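Researcher: We plan to redesign the surface later, but first we want a full-length starting point. Tokens attached.
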């Protein structure tokens, strides 16, 4: 890692772009049909509700970031309020949640691959998962530059098929006016008894906004810009998700979607089913888009998760090996290898929904801790003893609402997932006691933080949504 700095601060457009880009990824390809198995077309309501929940939690992250402008996010907030051990108890499940999300990607990749190879056996799928994880890990060990070049190609390629699906879908519904009413009625054929089960899966699709909370020193007027960007960004994400799912549910009957391993590819073939050739092209484009998106998400997620483990290790709260840098490629290669091995294991033994629910539990735990830290941060970190922009408008309502919603999300995960989640958190305690260096690695930490502006800017340019195209055009001009 080399020292560097940036002088140009991020404006409202930049941060909004970052929020949307952090949330929108492979999730929509994976989760699109899962809600229909629980609610049918009424899963659209769950997508809206999940968006509202995500906005409220995201605003708590915005408030915490404005009050404590430092890298580390949730675990840094917990450290500041309750001490290092509490910070570890937040950083550990955050890392576990990210690893579980990485485990989802090989499973999703194989599921969409069956669109092209329906006869794929379990053994063949396992080999593909192994190759998938090994290749992604290798690219990240080789360095951020190689990973960045891969993500440059993947960024636009993974989003274009979704836009094609939406546009072609609405044209198809206009040409076939009775299709939407036929597929969307009855609207709630299964009732709302499984609403919470569907909500847990769908909330996972909105996760990622916490990655957009970068040091506020990099942002123009951060106390106002971050909250506005969070609201605008998550509103855009919610609209995009709802429109995409409406298109899928209106064009493909929910009874078929609940068993579909490649739902968006199926919808793509339907919306272009004017001729057999067009139908084949539509399904192929969406299936390839899913494979590209899943690969891109796993590639960037591997990098960000390794950096999370690296940052926590520098605080003296993770094993020292997580901050060991490859002598040639200057990457935290041991962190990458460890998390990749765990993700591969999870993908081989866990099912898609189980991995998503487990990841959501850990995220909800981290979100709960962040919301709970906001009131204390307001008391300890309030600049010039003045209330922040959000505090003036919401008072205690924002953190209290966030705490309640996070607690409800944890409860909705179910007894077995809660028990497994608590066990995974408890497993982290002996790791902290036995392996953590207990003293922060001051030299490495100083270098890491001195380059954080450059790294966050790099992450920004790789993860933006649509605005990446704008950036490319600006560079050409």
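Model: Full-length starting sequence:
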């Amino acid at each position: 890692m080399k020292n560097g700095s940036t002088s140009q601060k991020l404006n409202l457009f930049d941060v909004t772009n970052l929020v949307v880009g952090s949330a929108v990824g492979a999730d929509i390809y994976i989760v699109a049909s899962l809600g229909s198995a629980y609610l049918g077309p009424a899963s659209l309501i769950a997508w809206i509700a999940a968006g509202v929940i995500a906005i409220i939690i995201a605003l708590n992250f915005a408030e915490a970031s404005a009050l404590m402008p430092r890298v580390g996010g949730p675990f840094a907030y917990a450290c500041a309020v309750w001490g290092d051990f509490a910070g570890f108890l937040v950083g550990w499940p955050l890392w576990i949640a990210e690893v579980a999300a990485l485990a989802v990607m090989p499973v999703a990749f194989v599921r969409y691959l069956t669109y092209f190879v329906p006869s794929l056996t379990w053994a063949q799928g396992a080999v593909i998962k192994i190759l998938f994880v090994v290749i992604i890990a290798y690219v990240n060990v080789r360095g951020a530059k190689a990973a960045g070049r891969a993500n440059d190609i993947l960024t636009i390629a993974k989003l274009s098929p979704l836009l094609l699906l939406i546009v072609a879908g609405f044209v198809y519904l206009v040409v076939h006016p009775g299709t939407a009413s036929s597929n969307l009625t009855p609207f709630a054929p299964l009732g709302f008894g499984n609403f919470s089960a569907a909500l847990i899966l769908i909330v996972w699709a909105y996760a990622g906004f916490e990655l957009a909370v970068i040091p506020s020193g990099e942002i123009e007027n951060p106390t106002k810009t971050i909250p506005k960007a969070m609201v605008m960004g998550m509103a855009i994400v919610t609209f995009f998700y709802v429109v995409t799912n409406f298109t899928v549910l209106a064009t493909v009957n929910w009874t078929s979607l609940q068993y579909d391993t490649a739902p968006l590819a199926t919808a793509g073939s339907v919306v272009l089913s004017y001729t057999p050739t067009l139908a084949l092209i539509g399904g192929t484009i969406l299936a390839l888009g899913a494979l590209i998106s899943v690969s891109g998400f796993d590639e960037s997620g591997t990098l960000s998760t390794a950096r999370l483990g690296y940052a926590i290790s520098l605080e003296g709260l993770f094993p020292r090996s997580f901050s060991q840098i490859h002598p040639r490629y200057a990457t935290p290669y041991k962190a990458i290898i460890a998390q990749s091995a765990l993700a591969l294991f999870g993908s081989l033994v866990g099912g898609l929904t189980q991995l998503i629910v487990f990841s959501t539990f850990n995220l909800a735990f981290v979100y709960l801790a962040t919301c709970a830290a906001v009131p204390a941060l307001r008391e300890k970190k309030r600049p010039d003893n003045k209330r922040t922009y959000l505090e003036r408008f919401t008072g205690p309502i924002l953190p209290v609402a966030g705490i309640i919603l996070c607690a409800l999300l944890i409860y909705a995960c179910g007894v077995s997932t809660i028990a497994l989640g608590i066990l995974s958190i408890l497993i982290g305690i002996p790791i902290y006691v036995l392996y953590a260096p207990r003293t922060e690695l001051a030299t490495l930490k100083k270098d890491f933080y001195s380059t954080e502006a450059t790294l966050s800017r790099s992450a920004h340019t790789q993860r933006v949504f649509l605005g990446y195209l704008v950036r490319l055009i600006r560079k050409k001009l």
